[in-house]
Design goal:
This protein is α+β, with helices and mostly antiparallel strands. It contains four helices and 20 strands. The longest helix has 40 residues.
């Protein structure tokens, strides 16, 4: 539905700072090139500890990070062939989490029924993705579509981020184009105007008009002269639980969000820029240029955002009952989607639990 882009006072729903996630989506957990064959890493998706390992054939597997024997963290173990080995007693588990070997068990003796829960896992865009919810839904749930990835016209800049804050606060920072004031010393944008706004059950789409001036404007190809004021349109699309944003074909950013816990969030983002260099030259220096632009330019913007987001979280924790006022309707729409997705999952969980309970009662009555 289309919403009025009028700025007016509204009260923030404080409960959005406490809700969990809808786990029936793909969540990013690590950069794929950091996990080599034969290695294992620990990750957490909304308080679920998971061990991700790559076997020696390069295949990824994701198991609950707790051995079903003693509960020891499996990520502290090692990879042997296609299996993950617990560091405590050497029990081996295959990629589906089934115990397939116990080294001190007599040959021929039946293995105990020990099963570590497994999770669907995928690798795309140099990101490892985990599906923490109902695994039956994973095959029909798409990953974000990123057409710029590997396109020769775009320079790709990976952006890692780590916030000590609830994911709703981080998401609001991304949707809130009005905070350009924070970045004024970095020649950020100014004079933002919310042009239009749409929201449905899964998404929020907002368009803002913003102005730029300074050397950054020339660097991004927004104008020939940096001293001129240039006005452009930013399109921001939040498709739960991730973002994509574009600046009139000049740049795009895909922000993939990982809610770790109630006060911790990570992001795996890909920024795409069009750089005025010959393609042959760009191909040669892409990795070095990408690192330089990230380290000496965009990281400064992110550091300022992290400081504000974490400050907001600390204040909330000190007084959760404090009331806040918001005038950007895009933020209120975003909150509705976040709360709605969590409530949708909880409702589905209750219905499934009631259905299972009824089936158990009917089965008991028959026997």
């Amino acid at each position: 539905m289309e919403l009025a882009p009028t700025l007016k006072s509204q009260t923030i729903q404080n409960r959005v700072r406490e809700v969990g996630i809808n786990p029936n989506y793909w969540y990013p957990v690590a950069w794929a090139d950091k996990l080599k064959p034969g290695k294992v890493i620990p990750v957490v998706v909304w308080q679920q500890a998971i061990a991700i390992y790559r076997n020696f054939d390069g295949q990824l597997h994701a198991l609950e990070d707790a051995c079903p024997h003693k509960g020891v963290a499996l990520h502290q173990g090692e990879v042997q062939g296609a299996n993950l080995v617990c560091p405590y007693h050497g029990w081996q588990f295959n990629g589906n989490g089934k115990c397939v070997n116990i080294p001190y068990l007599p040959e021929g003796q039946k293995l105990p029924c020990a099963q570590a829960p497994s999770y669907p896992v995928r690798e795309k865009y140099n990101i490892i993705w985990v599906f923490p919810g109902d695994g039956n839904l994973a095959p029909t749930t798409p990953l974000p579509d990123i057409p710029e990835y590997d396109h020769p016209d775009w320079l790709t800049i990976p952006i890692p981020a780590h916030f000590q804050a609830h994911f709703s606060i981080c998401n609001e920072n991304t949707m809130d184009v009005f905070h350009g004031f924070l970045h004024k010393d970095l020649q950020g944008w100014f004079d933002p105007v919310l042009l239009n706004l749409r929201q449905d059950e899964h998404s929020v789409q907002a368009k803002y008009q913003v102005s730029y001036q300074g050397w950054m404007t020339k660097f991004l190809g927004l104008s020939e002269q940096g001293n001129q004021v240039t006005t452009r349109t930013i399109s921001i699309n939040y498709d739960y639980p991730h973002y994509r944003s574009s600046l009139e074909g000049v740049s795009s950013i895909y922000l993939m969000r990982l809610p770790v816990g109630i006060t911790e969030t990570k992001s795996f983002s890909l920024l795409f820029l069009k750089v005025g260099l010959p393609k042959w030259m760009l191909k040669r220096i892409k990795p070095q240029l990408s690192q330089m632009i990230w380290r000496f330019l965009f990281k400064q913007f992110l550091d300022q955002d992290v400081e504000m987001v974490e400050s907001e979280q600390r204040t909330y924790l000190a007084n959760p009952g404090r009331r806040y006022v918001e005038i950007n309707p895009a933020i209120i729409a975003l909150q509705r989607v976040i709360v709605g997705q969590y409530e949708k999952f909880m409702q589905q969980s209750r219905e499934l639990s009631n259905s299972n309970h009824q089936e158990e009662q009917e089965s008991s009555a028959v026997t």
